[in-house]
Structure formats: C-alpha cells, structure tokens
Design goal:
Layout: H1 3-21, H2 26-32, H3 37-46, H4 51-58, H5 60-78, H6 93-104
Helix pairs in contact: 1-5, 4-5, 5-6
Length: 105
C-alpha cells in the first residue's frame, strides 16, 4: 500500500464522517461525495490484491463509501429501472431510483 493510497482513503474517510454522523442515506452520500469518485476510482485501478480490504479495515467512512458505490454498481448491473416516481431531484433521479431498487431487495 502506498502513501498516496493511504492519503486518498483518509481523505474519503474524513469527508464521510459528517454524513455518517448525520445518518445520511445512500443517495445523499453519493451526491455529497461526488467530488471523491475520481479518487476512489484511482484506488480501485491501482490497488494490489488486499489493499482495498485493508483500507476499509482502517477507515470505516471509506468502507461505507465503498459499500454505497458497490450498491449502485449492483443496481446498474441488475438493470434496475432508470426512472421512477419519487421526490428525487432531476440530477439524482436515476441514481436515487436505482439505489432504492437495489436496497429494497
């Protein structure tokens, strides 16, 4: 594990703490953490086997963010509906509905 990977995970973890403390749902986390997606992708692309698991063990906020992204990826892969009624704003309606569908199962 590199120092850069540790810094990225720590930054994501720190940004997640207020969202966790405020008991935000997956949609709010996705929206609130959108600026961190590129960094997360960098970790996924550069991590050797076991590194992501270790980062998740060290940083609970990072783990929670990874689980949110995993849920969303699962919803996309499953072909969950791309639109649905609800109180989601226009920017997040697709994600909101897919996350809601995936977490309801």
């Amino acid at each position: 594990m590199t120092s850069k990977q540790l810094r990225i995970a720590a930054r994501i973890d720190a940004a997640m703490q207020p969202l966790i403390r405020d008991n935000k749902d997956d949609v709010a986390i996705l929206t609130g953490m959108s600026d961190h997606m590129a960094d997360f992708k960098t970790l996924v692309d550069t991590a050797k086997p076991g590194v992501m698991d270790e980062l998740c063990r060290r940083h609970p906020g990072f783990y929670r963010y990874a689980k949110v992204l995993e849920t969303i990826a699962g919803a996309i892969q499953s072909g969950a509906p791309s639109r649905c009624p609800g109180d989601c704003d226009d920017r997040s309606v697709w994600v909101c509905c897919n996350v809601s569908s995936a977490t309801a199962s």
